[in-house]
Amino acid sequence: MSNQLIECVPNFSEGNDLSIIKQITDQIExxxxxxxxxxxxxxxxxxTVVTFVGTPDEVLDAAVAAVAKAAELIDMSxxxxxxxxxxxxxxxxxxxxxxxxxxxxxxxxxxxxxxxxDELGLTIYCYESAALTDERRNxxxxxxxxxxxxxxxxxxxxxxxxxxxxxxxxxSGATAVGARDFLxxxxxNLNTTSTRxxxxxxxxxxxxxxxxxxxxxxxxxxxLDENGNKVWEPGLLKCVKGIGWFIEEYGVAQISMNLTNxxxxxxxxxxxxxxxxxxxxxxxxxxxxxxxxxxxxxxxDAGKYFLKxxxxxxxxxxxxxxxxxxxxxxxxxxxxxxxxxxxxxxAIAQEQxxxxxxxxxxxxxxxxxxxxxxxxxxxxAPGGGSVSAxxxxxxxxxxxxxxxxxxxxxxxxxxxxxxxxxxxxxxxxHDELLRLIDEDTDAFNKIMDSFRxxxxxxxxKTARRQAIQEAxxxxxxxxxxxxxxxxxxMAVAKAMAEIGxxxxxxxxxxxxxxxxxxxxxxxxxxxINAGQVEDKSWIDDILTKGQEIQEKAIALEREILExxxxxx
Length: 568
Known about the structure:
Blueprint (H helix, E strand, L loop, with lengths): L4 E4 L2 E2 L5 H12 L4 E9 L4 E8 L1 H18 L15 E10 L3 H19 L2 E6 L10 H4 L7 H5 L19 E6 L4 E7 L4 H11 L4 E2 L20 E2 L6 E8 L4 E8 L7 H14 L4 E7 L4 H14 L8 H12 L9 H4 L1 H9 L15 H9 L7 H24 L8 H36 L6 H42 L5 H26 L5 H32 L1
Parallel strand pairs: 5-7, 6-7
Antiparallel strand pairs: 1-4, 1-5, 2-4, 2-5, 3-4, 8-12, 8-13, 9-10, 11-12
C-alpha cells in the first residue's frame, strides 16, 4: 500500500439487515489497495458507518462499487431511523490520512462525486471542504428536510445537485460527498430514557446551542432579530454538533455528537462538559461509545487528561494510557472496546502487518524469545543495528520506569508532576527507538533490493548506482539516529540517578549501561556502511559527528555510574 492514504467513511441507510451490509462491504474488500477497517451498524438509527482506507484512486473505485450496491439493495421509500438521512448512501466523506493534504483530498472528493453522478446516475451534493458553493458547506443545510423533503427541494432551481440528475429517485434518494478533517462520531450515555432531557443537554453543549426565548424557557416565545430571524444562544463547545435521542436496543437516551475538530474540542472535554450539564439537570452520565474510528492521539490525550486529574504520571505505556481513557470515558459500557479495531492507526497497522514477519507482523511485535531466536537465525537481518536500537529502548524504558515510580513514591506527592515530565521525556525516547528497530532492518533490505536492480543498459546502471547510494545513506542515517536519541535519553537516566527514588537507583545505572552499549553498537553500523558511500565529504561529516556522540555517551555513562555507586 502506498504511503499516500485517504480514509473513506460512507454512511449507509441500513443498520438491521446484515446480509445487505455484507454485500456492500464485500464490494470494498474486493478492491486491491484498500483495507476495510470498521463496520458499525446501528439498529435504532437503521444506519451503518463503514470505514476503509487506501490509496486514493483505489478508494474511489471501492466507494463507487459500494454506493452502487447500496443503491441497488436499499429502498429509501421504506426507510425509517433515528438519524437524519436523505439517501441510500447518505454521506460519503473522504479524509486525508497520510502524505496527502486537504486540497488534494478535495480534488478526489469532487472526482468521486462526478463518478457517482455520471456512472451511477445518482443525485450528488458536495459538502464541507469539497463544497462548490459556501452555502453547501454545512451538511445540515444540504440535508435539510431529509429524504421526505427531497422531492420538493429538487424542484427548486437553487437546489440543483452538483452532479447527477435533478430528478427525485424514490429508491436511492441523494448522497452528500465531502472532504473533511477527521470527524469523531461520539455518543454519551445517560441514566434516563427521556429524549427531551437528552436534547436539553445536547443544546447546552453543542456549538449551535438553542433558540433564545423571551422568558428563558424552552417553550417560550422566541427572540427575533431585526430581520425577523430567531436568535440563537450558542452552546459551550466549539466544533460540536449534537442532538439527544433514545436508543431502544440499549434502553437509554444518548447525546449523539459529531466532533468536527478534535484539536478544538477533544473527546474528553466534550465528555466532561456533558457530565457537568447532565448533573445540573439531575441526570448522570453512565458511559459513552465511539461510532467508527478515532485517532490514536485523541485517545492518548484523553488518557493523559484523566491521569493528570488523578495527579498520576503520564509517562506510562500507550496501552495503559488507552486503558485509563476507556475506563474514564466509559467506552466499554455497552460493549467491549477493542483498541486494535477502534483506533485508526492500530487498525491500519494490523492490516498492513498481516503478511509481515513476526507474531504481530514486525520485529517490535515479537515476544522477546522470538526476537532473540530471529536474531540468532541464519538470516542477516535483524542485526546489530536493530539490536542496538532495542538495547537503547530498554535503557530509556528503565529510566522512564524510575521516573514513574518516583512520581507516586509515598511522601513525594507534591513532586508527581516533576517526575511525570521526566517520564514523558523518557517515553518519547523509547517509543522512537522502538520504531527504529524495524527501520534499521528495512534500511538493510533496501540495500539488498538496490543491488538486485537490472544493469544491462547505461540508464539501468545509472539508476542502480543511484539507488545503492540512497539506500546506503539510509542504512547509515538510521543507526546515526539511534545514536542521537539514545544519547539524549541518558539525561533522563542521569536525572533519575540524582533525584529519583533511591530504591531504584541501580535501575538508572543499568539504563546508562544500556545506553552506552546502544550508542557504540549503532556507531559500528554507521561505520560498516560508510564504505559504500561515494560522497566522501558527507560520510566524513557523519563519522566525525558519530565519534563525538560516542565519546560523550561514554563519558556520561561514567558520570551516571559514579552517582549510582555513591548511593549503593
